[in-house]
Amino acid sequence: MNDNNISVNKIALTVGLISLLVYLRALSCQFVNWDDTDYVLNNELIRSLDSNFLRLIFTTLPFDFYIPITWISFAIDYFFWGLNPFGYHLTNILIHAVNGGLVVYLANRLLQGASSVQEFVPRKRSLYAATLLLSGLFFALHPLRVESVAWVTERKDVLNGFFTLSSIICYLRYVRGWDDGEGRTAIYRGYIPAFILFLMSLMSKPTSIVLPFMLLVLDWYPLARLQKSRLQSVLLEKLPFVIFSLAIIPASIVWYAKEETFHSLSYFPLFVRIVVSGNALFKYFALMLFPIHLLPFYNLPMAIPKVYILETVVVLMVLVCSVYWGRKRPWIIAALISFILPIIPVLPFLGNGASLALAARYTYLPSILPGILVALLITNYYSRAKTAVGRRVAAASVIVLLLFYAGMTQNMISVWINSGTMWSRVIEYEPFDRAYFYRALYYTDSGSYASAVEDYTSCIIIATSQQLSEIYNLYAFRGEALILAERYEEAVEDFSAAISLFPHKLYYYHRAIALNKMGKQRDAEQDSLLAGRAAGKMHWFPKGSAVN
Known about the structure:
Blueprint: H1 8-23, H2 36-41, H3 51-59, H4 68-81, H5 85-113, H6 125-141, H7 146-150, H8 155-179, H9 184-202, H10 211-220, H11 231-258, H12 270-289, E1 298-299, H13 307-325, H14 330-340, E2 356-358, H15 368-384, H16 388-415, H17 419-429, H18 433-446, H19 449-465, H20 472-484, H21 488-501, H22 505-517, H23 521-531
Antiparallel strand pairs: 1-2
Helix pairs in contact: 1-5, 1-6, 4-5, 5-6, 5-8, 6-15, 8-9, 9-11, 10-11, 12-13, 13-14, 14-15, 15-16, 17-18, 18-19, 19-20, 20-21, 20-22, 21-22, 22-23
């Protein structure tokens, strides 16, 4: 099959347009109170595009990641849209649509440039075009992509995907050119752009630190470049990539250590780390195959369920069987490694303080190469089907699957409409304290004060059972909601409970407001004196922070 036999550009454009149409609903989504507040709404950093902004984002670490490219994209959005979420979502959707098209180009380069897969590549022009089309659509329309696209904060995900895909495509251009004897031309037109794009992917989101190892997997299969005669040169090609990847690891460790977010082995034992990571891999496999009951947040429970052990055993068995089957079918091992490698950096094995068990957004890069393989297997089966009925069943199954993906994606976009719908989805399936807390924040901001009080109460009940040391914050937040609901006596009780645990001046300020509304001016004046200059909305005070 030759590149000129089909219009790869038209197929890529088709995938991009379909992706755009499916995701248009996300334009009605708002910002959510999970990271969007820090990354956009309250982020003074992105309010300008001057030299000082560029100096800060490239030479400092404003937040938990070194992502200057992402900050630039947010700053550009702010320049055009201010704080209108429409523009931010539009950018996410457009980048993802482009990524869907890039997967088509990636699939074409892999299938054209690898002799080891030629026996699987359909000879018929229409079937080859269908392989490329399905490769792009399986990636772009899968419901697991919604979190990366419909959540503004995950701009870093779609940007990283854009630069990573572009880097791999350029690398494949280099490999093909080098094998065709282009020499320096291949280096200038393929290798150097691939390396630059890789650096830009790291500066969008550091999850692409595994890219050099993914390239090595491609070198093994399907490119078949790891022969003994050229092994040294192939490994040397990856050295610049590996150096920058490895530089990210100690930098991240230093930052997390400085922030004291690493859990010790005594708190988070090695065995527990293994089984929660095994559970995560099991869930990722399952959700790729059956993307139902997707959640915006998967909380790691305080008591690890015994089923995690069983799921870890299943994952280990799958890995062992894949190695056995892969002796004669290397595409099985290549697909499996390509899926697992990008997930390794985000597994809860390290225990860096987060209670996140897994997240749909972490499948953005892992799903690319396995999706291409699935598309190839489907069209290969279709081409070898001996009866017309078999071909019709295969075609109908693919159409139904894509419609299912599109429908589920639409359904998941509705989950990200606002903070209320997002956290309600979590509470529906896996309720936990922070889900109630963040939904209560949304209810407070939207004026549903009674609902906010109910959610804060649920949160307090759970936090009490878990003996949360910072529970005074919950009493204070509920007290604030009670004041807004004009339930002043209850508000005084909550602020008194908070003060008894953590006598912050802001708590006195709000209790003074409630006391004044109750007509208890003398008590209110006394609290006002204790409050000093403290004023404003409630916010969270970590244990050990100053009370004044």
